[in-house]
Amino acid sequence: MTRSDLLKRLQEVQDAPQLKGRDVRSITAILSMDALLKHVETCEATARKH
To answer: Does the pLDDT of residue 50 top 90, yes or no?
Structure first.
């Protein structure tokens, strides 16, 4: 998976109600690929919670 793919996944969950008010994308510029993948997975898991 490319960095671009991960950023697209992150963009899809950014507007989820569970992440409202959080800027989950600005930190991505300094994250390694492994850290970015973990960040995306964490945000996706948070967005799935009710």
So the answer is: no
Q: What angle do CA 29, 24, 26 make, to 5 degrees?
A: 30
| CA dist., res. 29 & res. 23, Å (int) | 13
Range of the domain at 40: 3-48
pTM given for the model = 0.89
Distances in Å between the Cα of 6 and the Cα atoms of 18, 36, 50 are 19, 7, 23
Least Cα distance to 28 among 1, 2, 3 occurs for 3
Number of domains in the chain: 1
User: In terms of residues, how long is the chain?
Assistant: 50
